[in-house]
Amino acid sequence: MINAMRNITVTQSNGSEPPTAASDRQSLERELLDEMTAWSPRDRGGMFKTWHRHALSLVHLNVLTALEADGPLSMRHLAEAMDVSDASATGIVDRMEKRGLVERRHGTGDRRMVLVQATGAGEQVFHDMAAHHRDDLSRVLAELTEEEVTALLVGMRAIHAAKRRALEQDLDPNGASPPGPETVATG
Known about the structure:
Layout: H1 2-14, H2 25-37, H3 41-53, H4 58-70, E1 73-74, H5 75-82, H6 86-98, E2 102-106, E3 114-118, H7 120-141, H8 146-171
Antiparallel strand pairs: 1-3, 2-3
């Protein structure tokens, strides 16, 4: 199966002969990384058009990303996350609030604390972008044979599993796995 995937990749990318069994892993990984991270100006332009369809600046997307990742943030923490002054963050939030993308709420413990959080419309931005991206990918996948789609699915699942393992190792650099349901002591 690996040789079949190599044949598909090489033939589609440059029409040359498939790599021999002597191809080194570093070369294969480098080619795969090049393929996975390649953004043509057309790709980038398409993503920017999606953003601009919502008439959002990159700054607004940065705010929504911070709120999505961390939940409601104080103005000070939002300014720090964006690496701007408190006054700049206030102006940005003012504009976003007028557009219905974020709202300010007072903290429950300290009424002087103002928290910024995304509204439903603000959260919808990323759902719309993901749907657009998914549609684009569907059109690309429609151009692949069933065997190519199967090989790609196997590869993507392997990447996700490897990513989970790498994240677990980052959490525990000694190599011990975090306790799962089967390793937790009972009793």
